[in-house]
Design goal:
Blueprint lengths: L1 H6 L1 H26 L2 H39 L3
Helix pairs in contact: 2-3
């Protein structure tokens, strides 16, 4: 697990940052709709939690895609 964390440290940090940002926005939007803080917090925890996991794998996918394209582009000569 330590190697996994070391290998993905930057993406994990971005994921945690995204998680807290998303929860904050979700709570504020839910409060604007419901007018109740407890309901807003409760509703807002599930969706961002799932989105955070999806975001991590989304970043991994795009990172892998970028790495695959980079060598191909480097070999092209003008």
């Amino acid at each position: 697990m330590t190697k996994f964390i070391q290998t993905n440290a930057f993406t994990l940090k971005k994921t945690v940052s995204y998680y807290f940002t998303h929860i904050t926005v979700a709570v504020l939007v839910a409060y604007a709709v419901t007018g109740h803080w407890l309901v807003s917090i409760t509703l807002s925890l599930l969706e961002p939690s799932v989105q955070t996991v999806v975001y991590f794998f989304h970043e991994r996918f795009w990172s892998r895609t970028k790495r695959k394209k980079t060598p191909a582009l480097a070999s092209v000569t003008p």
